[in-house]
Specification:
single chain, alpha/beta, TIM Barrel, eight-stranded parallel β-barrel
């Protein structure tokens, strides 16, 4: 398949808003349903997800193409993902990203290429990585933490490499956007520390504390990736879907009235700054809480993000927890098929909210509670163009 086939014809649209769906590949969450399926089976499952997006009158699929320092396209930098064949580095016999771009565009869908920039593996044994893996060739780049392996963003060579690896896909395929998720420095694990002592000693001299240095590392990754995208394929957008709380108000008066993990302090991701400085084209905070949640209320966080995005060039979409709908371990609010529809009705009161993205494709397919069907019936009766 040609790595740069042009986009197909787009269907006429009547309104403009983001209607997106995440399609996760890590651990085979959404696709493919199992490792080692035939090419025909993998392709059929992928097409089924795209067709379902069309039936739900969505206009964007955010496809995870680099789940763990690997690739769902023939990358010269990183190995083929084990989630395809069951063996890292083994050619799957086709080009999933190339097919996804072509088939999405043929259906009038945007295809956003979703990259996890720093996760290397969801285990801590480097010998389980294929021998040619960059993490094995450069063991000093890697930190084991919380049962996983991560690239250390405090090393400039690491940031340069991961950008080069990701931008290969941007240069080779007409993706509509590059998408980062919520993982920067890893979520805190009690009793463990992220061992970047040597990198801090080598590269942190300009900073009075490690936290500021770590935030600067992630700032550089975001800012430099944005510049690289513009150079590799002008017009391709850059969006990030962070955890939904920047800082709590009891930590910072600019923060939200919440009591939750803080991306600024815990993940060293200054998400508010990226919006205010217009480093990214869109922000899609994961507001995975119900209306009325005591620690982090959806109805509190939407207005906070609206104020953050107002007057900037960064568009605001809202990440929605479709996966919680009907899950018996979740709060009773999520047992009501109307909860998600209420979210969209609430957000519609704020013109800065330009749409929603649902996590994730597997849950849209099952829709056991009918929450997605209710969203479509209440809000998506007419098609819509994605914002640009």
């Amino acid at each position: 398949m040609a790595r740069d086939a042009g986009a197909g014809p787009r269907r006429p649209r009547t309104t403009t808003e983001m209607r997106g769906m995440w399609l996760a590949t890590v651990n085979n969450r959404d696709w493919p349903s199992a490792r080692g399926l035939t090419v025909k089976e993998q392709r059929a499952e992928l097409i089924a997800h795209l067709d379902r997006a069309v039936r739900c009158r969505l206009n964007t699929v955010i496809f995870q193409v680099r789940p763990t320092a690997d690739a769902l396209w023939p990358s010269p930098y990183e190995p083929w993902s084990e989630y395809l064949t069951g063996t890292q580095g083994q050619h799957p016999g086709w080009d999933p990203l190339g097919t996804a771009v072509d088939e999405a565009h043929a259906r009038g869908l945007e295809l956003h290429a979703w990259f996890n920039p720093l996760r290397v593996a969801i285990h801590t044994d480097p010998t389980r990585l294929v021998a040619s893996h960059p993490a094995r060739k450069n063991p000093d780049w890697v930190v084991a933490y919380g049962g996983r392996l991560y690239y250390n963003p405090g090393i400039p060579e690491v940031r340069a490499f991961v950008q080069e690896a990701m931008l290969d896909a941007v240069a080779g395929y007409p993706v509509d956007a590059v998408h980062f998720d919520d993982y920067f420095y890893p979520y805190p694990v009690a009793g463990q520390s992220f061992d970047d002592d040597e990198a801090y000693e080598t590269h942190g001299a300009a900073f009075t504390n490690r936290a500021d240095w770590r935030r600067d590392n992630i700032d550089r990754l975001v800012r430099d990736t944005a510049a690289g995208i513009k150079e590799a394929r002008p017009g391709t957008r850059f969006g990030i879907s962070p955890f939904g709380v920047w800082r709590n108000a009891d930590t910072d008066p600019l923060g939200s009235d919440t009591r939750a993990v803080q991306t600024y302090d815990d993940l060293y991701a200054d998400t508010r700054k990226w919006v205010r400085e217009n480093w990214i084209d869109y922000i899609c905070p994961q507001l995975y809480w119900h209306i009325g949640n005591a620690a982090a209320d959806y109805a509190t966080l939407v207005p906070w993000w609206v104020e953050t995005a107002r007057g900037t060039g960064t568009q605001l979409y809202v990440g929605e927890a479709l996966y919680k709908a009907g899950d018996p371990v979740q709060h009773e609010a999520w047992q009501d098929p109307v909860e998600l529809s209420r979210h969209l009705a609430f957000a519609r009161e704020h013109s800065e909210v330009r749409g929603h993205v649902f996590f994730s494709a597997r849950d849209a397919a099952a829709d056991a509670l009918g929450a997605m069907a209710r969203v479509v019936a209440d809000h998506y009766q007419q098609p819509a163009m994605p914002p640009r």
